[in-house]
Design goal:
Length: 176
């Protein structure tokens, strides 16, 4: 084990919850549920955009506003999934009884965070580079959006959020 892994293992072994929660199980459950839910939603967002990009690869031009929108949201979903997923992985694996494994997860999380930052930078770069031109395209021919008609599309994401919080509360309750 490296010195940093030893230090992380010692920290994990000293507390039933990460020190940043100051022993607050409610906050831990909320964070665990939120990070798990956002990881799943990020995977869903990235997945739907990547699948659409793959399906329309031969039809769409790479610099078309719709293509750029898909690339940007695929990167945003991936950044969210990686960042929240690595944090959820840390929270799910936190165990003073197996401090070495938890310490290894802490170290792996740091590397995953770098990948998440890269995806976030890519998403923001696409937004900054394309924002003005996409706004011009949208203003030429305004398309009214019927947002309220799409409310049923939130059913699956809402179930992901609800189940994530139920699982998180169950884990905290079972540990306590």
């Amino acid at each position: 084990m490296t010195p940093s892994t030893n230090a992380a293992a010692a920290m994990v072994a000293s507390s039933p919850l990460p020190l940043s929660f100051a022993g607050d199980e409610t906050l831990f459950a909320a964070s665990l549920g939120g990070m798990t839910a956002l990881m799943c939603l990020g995977i869903m967002l990235a997945g739907v955009n990547v699948l659409t990009i793959a399906r329309t690869w031969r039809i769409d031009r790479w610099n078309h506003p719709v293509s750029i929108w898909r690339y940007a949201f695929a990167l945003a979903g991936l950044a969210t999934a990686l960042r929240c997923g690595s944090e959820a992985m840390l929270l799910w694996s936190w165990s003073p009884q197996d401090a070495v494994t938890s310490a290894r997860v802490i170290m792996a999380k740091r590397w995953v965070d770098l990948a998440a930052i890269s995806c976030g930078v890519g998403w923001m770069t696409l937004f900054v580079l394309s924002r003005r031109q996409i706004e011009i395209h949208l203003q030429r021919r305004p398309l009214p959006l019927e947002v309220w008609e799409m409310i049923p599309a939130l059913r699956r994401p809402a179930l992901v959020v609800i189940w994530s919080f139920i699982m998180a509360i169950g884990v905290v309750w079972a540990r306590g």
